[in-house]
Amino acid sequence: MSIRLGANRYGKSESRVVRIVRDTARHEIHDLNVSSWLRGDFEDAHVAGDQSAVLPTDSQKNTAFAYAKEHGVSSIEDYALALGRRLLEASPAATGALTRVEEYAWDRISVGDDARGHDHAFVRRGGDVRTTEVDRSRDSVQVVSGLTDLIVLKSTGSQFQGFLKDDYTTLPETDDRILATALTATWRWSGVDVDWNSTYAEVRATLLETFATTYSRALQETLWAMGRAVLESQPGIAEISFSAPNKHHLLVDLSPFGVANDGEVFIAADRPYGLIEATVTRDDE
Ligand SMILES: O=c1[nH]c(=O)c2[nH]c(=O)[nH]c2[nH]1
User: Fold this and answer.
1) Which residues lie below 8 Å from residue 171, measured CB to CB, with a gap of 6+?
2) Residue nearest to atom 8 of ligand 1 (CA)
3) Could you confirm whether 248 is annotated as catalytic?
4) What is the reported pLDDT for 85?
5) Is 160 assigned to a binding site?
6) Tens digit of pLDDT for each residue in 123-181?
7) Any idea which positions bind O2 (predicted)?
8) 8 Å CB contact between 54 and 39
9) 274 CB near ligand 1 (under 6 Å)
10) Alpha helices in 166-195, H assignment, sequence order
11) ipTM for the whole complex
12) Is there a catalytic annotation at residue 165?
């Protein structure tokens, strides 16, 4: 019998790093969830109990906090690039470092009629979360930007019909339904010379506008339309991937009460949900 160690990696997950920029009276906040992993030759740590090559996950966590100050957080991508570079430098046995960062957005509290909002009081913005994943090896780097939990709904402009039917198919065809999802999207950049913050806002706006303005014959078609629109407008993006739970809204039968329901009252079913996933990519990638 031959047994060997397979793929392995290790790191610190979900350090909640909050960086306040307080160089002036008008503070800024970056509220992050940071995870890192090192991969490489860590065989001895597993099979011989020898930890001499292992940079502790505690040190990885400390670096995440120190770098929030030493490098700063101009964007989560820029921060993750720097953190990954440092972890790789600090760990000779590592061949790669993966850094994942989520950012929770805060808005300034508006006070009176001052449109600028308060200098140092914030209210957490609900909704979607910006994400990045930076994968560094010794001679390459790959940046994926993204968002998760972008909850969107169309109250019409969506159908689902003409689908394959078998003995177990009961779903009625519909030419007018609610389409809703909590979108996760990740887009891979072909380089790193990118304005991370402005492109993030542009991609998010493109996703929303395409969702709103495209008639949907299925969530699959909507993902394709959103992906195409992003690749058409952002030459630096090589591919975009989606994970989209179909948040079913089922028409409630009000006829027992003698009440008509022409697409007006729905039950939002949380489970089960269809899960539609797709990647839209350039031909030459
Ligand atoms: O947009 C949809 N795609 C499907 O694949 C599917 N399947 C289903 O039951 N409803 C839907 N809706």
Assistant:
1) 160, 163
2) 274
3) yes
4) 98
5) yes
6) 999 999 999 999 999 999 999 999 999 999 999 999 999 999 999 999 999 999 999 99
7) 57, 246
8) no
9) yes
10) none
11) 0.98
12) no
